[in-house]
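Continuing the series of single-chain predictions for the mutant panel. This is the parent chain; the variants come on the following pages.
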Amino acid sequence: MPSGISATENHLRKPDFTGRTGELLVIRTVSKGNGKRPLLTKTLTKTADGWHKTSYDKAFQIQVEPREIASFDALVATLDEIKFDRHAMILRGPLTEAGRTALAENPNAIGLRRKNKSKEWPNPWFQEGAVQWEMLDFDDLPTDGIDYKHEPERFVRHVVKNHLPDCYHDVSCWWQLSASAGTKEGVTGVHLVYWHHQPVSTDVLRGLTQANEDRDAVDPALYQAVQPHYTARPIFTNCPDPIPRRDGVLRGKVDAVVLRLSDIIDTRKKIHEKKVKAKRQKRVASARRNQVTQGAISSSVAGCLALMGDGDGLQGFRRPIRDAVFFWTMETRPAQRKERHPARRNWPKFKDFIRSSARAAPGGSWSRIKERVCDAALDQQYQSARQKLDDTFGDAPDAPPQGIPLAQAETAIREVVREVLIADEPIARAVIATVGAGKTEQAFREIAALGIWRDKRVHMYVPTVVLAAEELERTQDHGIENARIHRSRDFKAEGIEPLCDETMQPVAKVVEEAGGRVRETVCSKCKFAEACGWMKQGADDGPGLVIMPADYSLLPTAKKADVQIFDESFWQKGIRRSGKLDTNVFAQLPTIRTRDNTQHDHDAENDLHTANSKLRRAIEFWDGTTAPLVASGLTPEIAKRARGINHQRADLLTELLKKTPLDAMSKIISRHQKEHATARREAELWSILATELELATDAPRQIMGVILDQGDGVLHMQRRADLKAPDIPTLVLDATAEPEILRAFLPKIEVKRFNVAAPHQRIIQIDDAQLGKSAIVPNEDDTPAVAKTKANKIQKLERVLEVARASHSDGAVGLNTYKGTEEALSPEALSGVIHDHFGNISGKDGYRDVALHITAGRPEPKALDAERMARALWYDSPEPLTLTGSYGDEDDWRWSSEGEAIKCHRRSHLDRRVDAIRRQVTTAALLQSDRTRGIRRTAENPVTWLVLTNEPLPIRVNEFCSIDDIWPTRFEVAASRGAACSNAKHMALMHPDLWATADVAMNDKKRNGWPEIGSTLITSAPEKGWVIPYIGSSYIGSDPSFQMFEYRVTGARTAPTRVVSKSAAAARHCLEKLGTLATFVDIGEGATDVDAPSVSEPDEQPLRDLNSCLSPTPSVSKPARPVIKVEPPEPRWGATGDACWNDDGLVWGSVVPLVTLEDLWRAVQELHVSYFMVTGLPPPLEQNRLSAVM
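Parent structure:
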């Protein structure tokens, strides 16, 4: 095999390439709408379980910087420059004329990383072509005993010698170990970048790789115009980079690779031979597959069941049943583009269909057949098919338990409350019970029943002061006489006046913001002090029930309590974000005075200078671990000493202000802030570092509480604020608390869960759309296309609300969504709807009377935000966090009301504690959004909760559906307004906001299908009037009280048009927009009409009546779900049938004829009635098979 010229020949030729230029395309990502800029490097995290990596971000929107490269050295200089840029990479390209033109007009233009034309990008910037450089990618190469970590050049020479042709030997190259180098045993990867003596096309290099065995280890994926060539160094968290040196230059005898023409010719021949061989093998394999065995083979449900039975050409019963179940499962599995939930399969009905087919099959006794079609046998076939076909099938955990009765739950909750209230030792209990279970009410009852408020002080912490005021009113009903609320001095709300006098608030605020203590400096001089409610509140230490915001549990006053109760979530208050510090402050040397302010404290100044100098040195080598801190000489003792000195600096302000008149305090504060403005934050930093250093006794550990922004030189601090009274009896009442988070504050807390039954609540959830914040909340940075997409979704949500209001009275529809979406909805859409947004609904009780509650979307913290909260909560944990900066996907489960588990996926974080925060923010917020008190509903007051997001819930759900089942069509919206007809022109005139013109209405009718008024309307007994499923989805509701009218516009020469409406007045109101009516007739119950047969009189045209009764396929895009009982006219023709719709809009009906088979067949032939099986495959209607069809 030719392998190119030898290294000696290459050296002897020494071609002169001076003056020849190449081009290198440097690609950089741009920020997304959410402000995040995609990373073009991997993030690797080391945990106790091993290495975890986060792959590169997708980068389709890019900026291009073409660089002229004339030599290998220029190529190396560019690569050494961009290897530190985490948002940069290189591409082969080259640029097209369109790309060069765009960059010439605007060097900062943003383009797409594409080479093919599309509607949205008709002029791509890149094309396949020739460039003068080449990158070779080797993955998972055996190290062959070479210590590549400390001798990388030796390993590179080994790779070149053993995996590349001779023409690459002794040629200079730039090498870079792959991101995963150092994380795997025995293998590693490497990138080699070469300079060629002349431009070489991508096709040639790809062909060389595919045809030559010498390049068998090279990844050919890089040989494409737009394939990313990653150059940035990886990011390591929890540990330093295990590779001391990741890249460098290996110098050879020459700096350019020379490819011979003979090599290229031989390569093309080999590629041609491979293609010819592959085609020959494909023909042989196809011929073998076509050699089928004897017996018919079917590829559909109908075909399989047609082969069922005993006789010639039939296959018995076992195999056809097995294959039918397999194909039915395959045809109904989730699609690739539009997920359809397996729970929507109507397996029980399909089992009945198999049984009926088996009974009708020839041969065999039923006693033998029924063993094949019993539930156990069919279920086994179904589970086997799901295991083979469904990605969503697997071993599920235990289903959420069936709820217990409300009375039983209330009793159990009171027992836990009593245990805490009468405890003589510091116990901690958490009651996690269904929303609406009355946790707070049971607490009040026990406090009153025990009379504990008379001799013990009970602190009840709630989310807000407003909620505290509401609960204070409830305590009066229980006879708790000394209940009261505590609040901040300047809080003001409707009906709640500030405790601090308005004239004193400005100076108090200035002192507080500067870090001074207000009580000691301002209140001691206040003329209103004796009557001040805030001063009295501070002196309050008597028994009773004191209700206050959860923040107060973190203040020293919490120690006054004998018992503390947390009502709803409090963990967010325990995350103390201490702000940020510019690293330049550690270069300053502040003047420090003694605590009594009598002299300079030179010892403190020297000690702080020493600590700051060591910290500055550590910051220079900051890697996110304690290693640089220890190497710089910092110890826990030094950190604690620095913390105390900085507190001394901050406390000096209070000492100064104690002796200062109120009107002179601003000057003193201004003078103090010049040197000591950051003293309190510096003390916070040293407090965190002291804890980190104490935990890093044996080995370096990841620093949790401090994040260094190396670009800005800013330290960000966060940590957990501990409860001030963790050693008293504590009770947590929360419907959705995460035990993992609770234990960060109360390590020994015991969790009691109570799932309460809600027999009169119906929960419906979509399973194919997240409806995330970025999909439905308008943002000023949105592009026109994104803004239009969001506006369309908001409009769809408005239509959902409009249709829902048509079926419910005012105040009977509730909505909870994002704040931005709530603000974007029109006032008309929210009229009569009780609405609120995420984060503002906890503890509220205004939805107890709604009949339909809609939750649209789900809140989700950004991955970095969740990680920062986790850093704060577990900053002092000996177990390090796994920080990846992004979410991934993990398997989860949805649960039907029967306890059936359906495997699905949800966004999650690799670290369990970070993921617990995501669940607390996302899943818990969804459960909290259901404030309808479903567990307290009755048969007379049921409720439906509609969840418009596919986030898996840890509860049983009655029905799953697609979001398309929820979005109403424009025709359905029109019908919900009171009147609808099938005349497109008239509908456009009646509802111009839905259809701007008649042409738009006509196109909508053709595309989506409208019900033909008259032919598909069906009378419903015993309900009066005409029934139209005006809402295609039964999930929102439907109105069975429609009537039919017939009208003709004055001057029209067409036949009368029919309209369905809730009333004659509603119909006339809509029809007024058409002009003057020549006729308007009620053709409801009792009327005789050819197209709409009467239910009380026989029709004289029986064949047309039969057509009306047997027509099973109304022309609507989303068929109605409920079973429709069809009552045909009497007396000549008669039939009853059940019409059932599946998700594909197909009908399966059973019709019992009451006439002779021959007469019925003639009627079927004349009317062209089509029959659809449940599989959606219409079998031919031959007369000899008519009995099977009917």
